[in-house]
Amino acid sequence: MSSVEYSLAIELDRDFDEVVAATREALAAEGFGVLTEIDVKATMKAKLDVDREEYLILGACNPPLAHRALDAEPDLGVLLPCNVVIYRTGSTTRVSAVAAEQMLGMVGNDALAPVAAEVAERLDRVLAAVASS
Questions:
Q1: What is the largest CA-CA distance in the chain?
Q2: What does the alpha-carbon distance between residue 56 and residue 64 come to, in Å, rounded to a whole number?
Q3: What is the rounded CA–CA span in Å between residue 74 and residue 68?
Q4: Measured between alpha carbons, how far is 75 from 81 in angstroms, rounded to an integer?
Q5: In this structure, are residues 41 and 17 in contact, taking their beta carbons and an 8 Å threshold?
Q6: HEC secondary structure over the chain
Q7: pLDDT at res. 107
Q8: In what order do the strands lie in the sheet with 7-12?
Q9: What is the pLDDT along the chain (133 residues), one digit of tens a residue?
Q10: Cα distance between residue 60 and residue 27, in whole Å
Q11: What per-residue confidence (pLDDT) applies to 28?
C-alpha cells in the first residue's frame, strides 16, 4: 500500500470494472454507502472533448461516523463525503482513499480524533479487501 500525505492507495494488475465492483463491495462491508459518483472520463469528454483513461470518484459515507463527526464539528460537511478514487494508470488500476486522520486533523478539533481513527481503519480494510479480492 502506498501513500502520500492526503491518501492511501493500492495498484492492481486487474480490470477497471472488476476493481470498481470489488471496491463498492468492500465499502459496503465497512458500512459505507456511495452517495456520489463522478465519471471523470465521461465528464471530460462531454465538457472539454478530452479523452482520458477511466477515472471514477466515489463519494463514500458511513452515516454513524458522519453523524459523530458533524456533532463534533458542524462545518466538517465541507470535507464530506470520504472520496475513493479508482483510475487506470498505464496497465494497472489504482484505488486511492482519503487519509482520514490527515484530513480531519487539519480541522484542529481533538474530538474528531477517534472518528478519524475509525474511518482510517475502515478505509485501510477496504483497500486490503480490494487488494485480496
A1: 45
A2: 25
A3: 10
A4: 13
A5: no
A6: CEEECCEEEEEECCCHHHHHHHHHHHHHHCCCEEEEEEEHHHHHHHHHCCCCCCEEEEEEECHHHHHHHHHHCHHHHHHCCEEEEEEEECCEEEEEEECHHHHHHCCCCHHHHHHHHHHHHHHHHHHHHHHHC
A7: 85
A8: 2-4, 7-12, 92-98, 82-89, 55-61, 33-39
A9: 655 588 999 999 999 999 999 999 999 999 999 999 999 999 999 999 999 999 999 999 999 999 999 999 999 999 999 999 999 998 999 999 999 888 888 888 898 899 999 999 999 999 999 999 9
A10: 8
A11: 98
Sole residue written with cell 489504482: 94
* Superfamily in which the 2-132 domain is placed by CATH: TT1751-like domain (3.30.310.70)
